[in-house]
Amino acid sequence: MQFDTLQKDMIAAMKARDKARKDAISSLVSDVKKAAIDAGTRDDIKDELVDQVILKSLKTAKEQLDSCPADRTDLKEEYQFRYDVIKEYAPQMMGEDEIKKFLNDNFAEVIASKNKGQIMKEVMPALKGKADGKLINTIVAELCK
Predict the structure, then answer these.
(1) Tell me: the pLDDT tens digits for 2-45?
(2) Among 27, 28, 18, which residue's Cα sits nearest to residue 49?
(3) C-alpha 36: how far from its chain's center?
(4) pLDDT at site 129
(5) Would you state the pLDDT for residue 132?
(6) Chain Cα centroid distance, residue 134
(7) Which of 11, 64, 69, 95 is the most buried (most CB within 10 A)?
(8) Among 76, 42, 79, which Cα is nearest to 61's?
């Protein structure tokens, strides 16, 4: 995801007077800017940094949605909308079949050891930002049986 796209979409939401969408995108833009400043790349924001921030924001929005009390439907709707908007910008994650194929193609010798800790140590850096860590953990546990 390019930072310029986020900014253009935020401006489009402002022009359309869609306050809820503008707020969601605006928080993404400010989170990306903050992360860029922290990384020392304020002027040249890389797509990888934008993707990392979006994934982190998506996880936070999901946690908000999950922890919201059931009787607070107004908050639940707001959190759901925010989650849906952020999900639009999130990079496409690998599915279960893709992860299994990737592991078998690239890490067959490590998987043969059946040492889950060692496998995760090798696999996680290769799949960071491309697949959900919980899903990877489940698949690795299955392969270690």
Answers:
(1) 888 889 999 999 999 999 999 999 999 999 999 999 888 877 88
(2) 28
(3) 17
(4) 74
(5) 79
(6) 13
(7) 64
(8) 79
| Neighbour-count burial of 28, counting CB atoms closer than 10 A to its CB (0-12 exposed, 13-18 middle, 19+ buried) | buried
In the numeric block, the tokens 């850096």 are attached to 125
CA distance 4 to 43: 12
| DSSP annotation string for the chain | --HHHHHHHHHHHHHTT-HHHHHHHHHHHHHHHHHHHHHT-SSS--HHHHHHHHHHHHHHHHHHHHHS-TT-HHHHHHHHHHHHHHHHHSPPPP-HHHHHHHHHHHSHHHHTTT-HHHHHHHHHHHHTTTS-HHHHHHHHHHHH-
pLDDT tens-digit map of 92-113 = 888 888 888 888 777 777 777 7
Tokens for 61, please give them: 């929005």
Burial class (CB in 10 A: 0-12, 13-18, 19+), 85: buried
Residue 1 confidence (pLDDT): 61
Token pair recorded at residue 5: 């796209």
Lowest mean pLDDT among 7-11, 62-66, 119-123: 119-123
